[in-house]
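Support reply, case 0932

Customer input (verbatim):
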Amino acid sequence: MSEAPETSPAASRRTLLCGAAAALAVGGTVALTGCGSSSGSSDSGSAPKGPVDLGPASAIPEGGGKVFREQKIVVTQPTAGQYKAFSAKCTHAGCIVDQVKKEQIQCPCHGSRFGIADGAVQDGPAPSPLPAYTVTVEGGNLKVTPS
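Our regenerated output:
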């Protein structure tokens, strides 16, 4: 006795997902929102080499900061005239942090939060602080040297 094959929503989802995966494999790459390199290059997301000029120090608000996404650097000013620089690459999944708000550097991917004074993890899942960089002010401009 033969039975008709069972049709279920799981089978339909599986078929759809397999088809989508095949189309992606043939058709190109997938951009993961907020994760990985946004440049499309073969760069592994490493920090820039040598000092990077990030423009006027006056652009960094006291008690806050600014993310320089293209350079993968975040600069903060915890107190007046004290500048700190960190890698903008989250230590959890490698996403680029997107803002400095409420005295925290914030990652959009999984909710990690880092302190603006030391890059320390204030809220996970990030396992370690953001790597610190050397920052100086020369002629009113920020110069950051990745470590």
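We compared this against your earlier run and they match. Two observations from our side: The beta strands are 52-56, 64-68, 73-79, 82-87, 99-101, 104-106, 113-115, 121-123, 132-138, 141-145. The helical segments are 9-27. Please reopen the case if you see a mismatch on your end.
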